[in-house]
């Protein structure tokens, strides 16, 4: 028995409008979560290098937990497990944003820690010798230099988080993969639909990569 497969371009084209409805959810979850994750990353990244043990270890614990467990398990815990604790349901969109925020925050914490520690200690001494306080020295001298070094890994984390949203179809979030699953259920064109879904993710991540490269070049040019 000979098996023949022919790619149905018309089916792929017909699927685009329906699949495109998932793009806003994908972007909302990824960038909304990343915005919160960036704030968490700054907070816990700086706390993780604090000399005070009571501030440092809670930050390290958070980082290790969310870096050491799969994001799929995290979002399932938030969506299915946490409601049992708080006694109220959590909608899929909120669960997705929370999972991206907590997961990316842990990775960004390490980016912040590495960026700050990569700056020569002489920079801090120079600021203090100019009469600046330690806080002023950090935010005026150390942080701007460290942030420029953080841009590439932060960009990489953004791309990873966008791709991670594809896992959230398991809780019913209407992002790209979920839209594809719904469309396939009625058309039985899995190969064509997932091909288009992959191209959409690729278009989003490549566009973001281009923007990040431009930002990185401008950052390097200003040094």
Automatic annotation (TrEMBL):
Q: What is the lineage of its organism?
A: Bacteria, Pseudomonadati, Pseudomonadota, Gammaproteobacteria, Pseudomonadales
Q: Name one GO cellular component term.
A: ATP-binding cassette (ABC) transporter complex
What SUPFAM superfamilies does the database record attribute to this sequence?
A: MetI-like
Q: By what name is this protein known? A: Putative glutamine transport system permease protein GlnP
PROSITE patterns recorded: ABC_TM1
One of the entry's Gene Ontology molecular-function terms is:
transmembrane transporter activity
ABC transmembrane type-1 domain boundaries:
23-212
Which stretch is the leader sequence? none
Q: List locations, semicolon-separated.
A: Cell inner membrane; Cell membrane
Q: How does it sit in the membrane?
A: Multi-pass membrane protein
Question: Family per UniProt?
Answer: Belongs to the binding-protein-dependent transport system permease family. HisMQ subfamily.
Bilayer-crossing regions: 27-47, 59-82, 193-215
Q: Name one GO biological process term.
A: amino acid transport
Organism expressing this protein natively: Marinobacter halophilus
Q: Could you confirm whether the keyword Membrane appears in this record?
A: yes
User: Quick one: where is this thing mainly located?
Assistant: membrane
* The protein's role, per its UniProt record: Part of the binding-protein-dependent transport system for glutamine; probably responsible for the translocation of the substrate across the membrane.
């Amino acid at each position: 028995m000979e098996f023949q497969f022919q790619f149905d371009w018309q089916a792929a084209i017909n699927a685009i409008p329906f699949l495109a409805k998932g793009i806003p959810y994908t972007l909302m979850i990824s960038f909304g979560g990343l915005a919160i994750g960036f704030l968490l990353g700054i907070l816990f990244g700086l706390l993780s290098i604090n000399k005070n043990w009571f501030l440092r270890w809670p930050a390290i614990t958070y980082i290790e937990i969310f870096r050491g467990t799969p994001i799929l398990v995290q979002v399932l815990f938030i969506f299915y497990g946490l409601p049992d604790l708080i006694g109220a349901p959590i909608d899929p969109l909120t669960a997705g944003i929370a999972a991206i925020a907590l997961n990316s925050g842990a990775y960004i914490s390490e980016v912040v820690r590495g960026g700050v520690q990569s700056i020569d200690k002489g920079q801090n001494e120079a600021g203090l010798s100019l009469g600046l306080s330690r806080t002023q020295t950090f935010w005026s001298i150390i942080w701007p230099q460290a942030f420029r070094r953080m841009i590439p890994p932060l960009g990489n984390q953004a791309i990873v988080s966008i791709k991670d949203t594809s896992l959230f179809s398991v809780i019913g979030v209407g992002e790209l993969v979920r839209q594809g699953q719904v469309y396939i259920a009625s058309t039985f064109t899995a190969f064509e639909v997932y091909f288009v879904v992959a191209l959409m993710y690729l278009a989003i991540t490549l566009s973001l990569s281009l923007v990040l490269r431009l930002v990185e070049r401008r950052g390097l040019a200003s040094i």
